[in-house]
């Protein structure tokens, strides 16, 4: 399946309001942000840095979503609404991540090198989540709305609060998912 078809299917699977592919392409800022990021990331990796940054700033102006061209983004990223999202230069985002509005994947400002978060495959970042520093959110973790994540979060857990604390283990999340899928 092409990357475009994959992305369209991702939006249709994750947003009950999503209609046709044409509607998604024309009205969803997350799709535009990802499109512009793919181009700016390509330019950034070719060391065509100023045009890459200019394109990312244009995308920010159009979408309200700021993604540094150096950020690495996996497949099927679902951005719902998106306004106010900021993704820093050394952030890494895995496949099948769901991200809601006003999420920040930021640095602390006192580090060089890798200074932004790594987000594992299948992670859910609810609205207004702030993930700060060179930390890792494990695969399939869920981070509740307005949480401030300052330390690594293990795989498969649910974390909430300021600072974020684990409130549901991987086993509890797995059991709840299994119960929701029984016939």
UniProtKB/TrEMBL annotation:
<dbReference type="InterPro" id="IPR011004">
    <property type="entry name" value="Trimer_LpxA-like_sf"/>
</dbReference>
<comment type="pathway">
    <text>Amino-acid biosynthesis; L-cysteine biosynthesis; L-cysteine from L-serine: step 1/2.</text>
</comment>
<comment type="similarity">
    <text>Belongs to the transferase hexapeptide repeat family.</text>
</comment>
<keyword id="KW-0198">Cysteine biosynthesis</keyword>
<dbReference type="Pfam" id="PF00132">
    <property type="entry name" value="Hexapep"/>
</dbReference>
<keyword id="KW-0012">Acyltransferase</keyword>
<dbReference type="InterPro" id="IPR005881">
    <property type="entry name" value="Ser_O-AcTrfase"/>
</dbReference>
<dbReference type="InterPro" id="IPR045304">
    <property type="entry name" value="LbH_SAT"/>
</dbReference>
<dbReference type="GO" id="GO:0009001">
    <property type="term" value="F:serine O-acetyltransferase activity"/>
</dbReference>
<dbReference type="InterPro" id="IPR042122">
    <property type="entry name" value="Ser_AcTrfase_N_sf"/>
</dbReference>
<dbReference type="InterPro" id="IPR053376">
    <property type="entry name" value="Serine_acetyltransferase"/>
</dbReference>
<dbReference type="GO" id="GO:0005737">
    <property type="term" value="C:cytoplasm"/>
</dbReference>
<keyword id="KW-0808">Transferase</keyword>
<keyword id="KW-0028">Amino-acid biosynthesis</keyword>
<dbReference type="InterPro" id="IPR001451">
    <property type="entry name" value="Hexapep"/>
</dbReference>
<dbReference type="GO" id="GO:0006535">
    <property type="term" value="P:cysteine biosynthetic process from serine"/>
</dbReference>
<protein>
    <recommendedName>
        <fullName>Serine acetyltransferase</fullName>
        <ecNumber>2.3.1.30</ecNumber>
    </recommendedName>
</protein>
């Amino acid at each position: 399946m092409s990357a475009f078809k994959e992305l369209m299917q991702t939006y249709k699977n994750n947003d009950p309001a999503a209609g046709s592919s044409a509607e998604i392409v024309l009205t969803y800022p997350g799709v535009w942000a990802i499109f512009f990021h793919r181009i700016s990331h390509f330019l950034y990796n070719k060391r065509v840095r100023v045009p890459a940054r200019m394109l990312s700033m244009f995308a920010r102006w159009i979408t309200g979503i700021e993604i540094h061209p150096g950020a690495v983004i996996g497949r099927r990223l679902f951005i719902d609404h998106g306004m106010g999202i900021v993704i820093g230069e050394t952030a890494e985002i895995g496949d099948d991540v769901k991200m809601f509005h006003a999420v920040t994947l930021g640095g602390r400002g006192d580090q060089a090198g890798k200074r932004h978060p790594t987000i594992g495959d299948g992670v859910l970042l609810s609205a207004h989540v702030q993930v700060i520093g060179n930390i890792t959110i494990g695969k399939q973790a869920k981070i509740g709305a307005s949480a401030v994540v300052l330390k690594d979060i293990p795989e498969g857990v649910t974390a909430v609060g300021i600072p974020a604390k684990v409130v549901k283990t991987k086993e509890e999340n797995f059991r709840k998912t299994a119960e929701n899928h029984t016939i």
